[in-house]
Specification:
The chain is of the alpha+beta class. The chain has a single domain, classed as Immunoglobulin-like (Sandwich), CATH 2.60.40.1120. The strands form two sheets. A four-stranded antiparallel β-sheet has the order 3-2-5-6, with no helix packed on it. Strands 4-1-7 form a three-stranded mixed β-sheet, with no helix packed on it. The longest helix has 18 residues. The protein is elongated, with a radius of gyration of 23 Å.
Length: 107
């Protein structure tokens, strides 16, 4: 067998092995936030990653909102109402995939 044919077969085998190995699917979480307050306070919920300070936020409507595509990890969560003071930061753990429900208390 010639050297060039062996190289071609080796390249074909590597390509075939690469294409048949299943890839790892990395998913992020859908974070659904409910703000528990007597007035269903409107405002902004901000999640800040403790690892890299990246932020994700959503604006509440009738006391709830959601953020899609949040990577798993440790986060600080703050609710800032349209009127009034923000809540104290609260630490939460977000799962690496699926649906995560957060309930925040607001005055």
């Amino acid at each position: 067998m010639s050297r060039s044919l062996r190289h071609l077969l080796l390249l074909f085998a590597i390509a075939l092995a690469t294409l048949t190995v299943p890839g790892v699917a990395l998913a992020d979480a859908l974070v659904v936030v409910t703000v528990d307050s007597p007035s269903h306070a409107e405002g902004v919920v901000t999640l800040t990653s403790r690892a890299d300070a990246h932020t994700y936020s959503c604006t509440t409507h009738q006391g709830s909102c959601s953020v899609d595509g949040v990577p798993g990890g440790h986060y600080s969560v703050v609710f800032t109402p349209t009127t009034g003071q923000p809540t104290d930061a609260r630490g939460v753990m977000i799962a690496p995939a699926g649906r995560v429900e957060l309930h925040l208390a607001a005055p």
